[in-house]
Amino acid sequence: MTSAQGLGAIGGGLMTSFLPTKGSPLSLSIGFGLSAVLACGLFLISHVLWAGLLTLACLSGAILANGVCTQVVLQTQVPESVRGKVLSLYTMIFRGLPAMGAMAAGLIAENTSNRVIFGLSPPIVAMLLVLLVALNKDRKKLSDS
Predict the structure, then answer these.
(1) ∠ CA(37), CA(38), CA(42), 5° rounding?
(2) Taking the CA of residue 75 as centre, how many other CA atoms within 13 Å lie in the half-sphere pointing to its CB?
(3) Which of 56, 92, 117, 129 has the most crowded Cβ, counting Cβ within 10 A?
(4) Residue 130, in any domain of the structure
(5) How many other β-carbons are positioned within 10 Å of the β-carbon of residue 127?
(6) pLDDT tens-digit series, residues 111-134
(7) Please, are residues 79 and 88 in contact by the beta-carbon 8 Å criterion?
(8) Domain total for the chain?
């Protein structure tokens, strides 16, 4: 599994070496985030070793590519006067939110099974990403007018 993650990370690194020039980094970041959610969901429902390894490789590559594109957005599109504050907030969220999610999953796990928790998580995150895409489109419309 670790080797599959490493292979996926290599693929994600290769993708980020040429994809940011093909589209907006924010759109790519959201797309890679959605890809990660999809791969995570597929990994959770896979019962065959090769399918699990393939989805784990895709998950790892999507997470790496998402992180790189997010950093590109933060370092190029945020005004210089607040860039340090935004990067600090991003780092705090990036490091702290998974721990809060794990705590919430643990609290919910007391009353249900792990499969239910992990089965519900990808659709919820996917809905949040779709909402983010919609908000991003509205922001573009406002800036164009």
Answers:
(1) 115
(2) 7
(3) 56
(4) yes
(5) 11
(6) 887 777 777 778 888 888 888 778
(7) no
(8) 1
**H-state helical runs in the chain:** 2-18, 25-45, 49-76, 83-109, 114-144
* Residues spanned by the domain of 136: 2-77+112-144
pLDDT digits (tens, 9 = 90+) for 15-40: 888 775 667 787 888 888 888 988 98
Tell whether 91 is covered by a domain: no
Residue 49 lies in a domain: yes
Give me 91's structure tokens: 């780092």
Residue 95 lies in a domain: no
Residue 115 is encoded by which pair of tokens? 């499969």
Residue type, position 28, single letter: L
pTM of the predicted structure, to 2 decimals? 0.74
Residue that the structure tokens 């909402």 belong to: 131
Using alpha carbons only, how large is the chain's radius of gyration in Å? 17
> How many angstroms separate the CA atoms of 125 and 93, rounded?
15
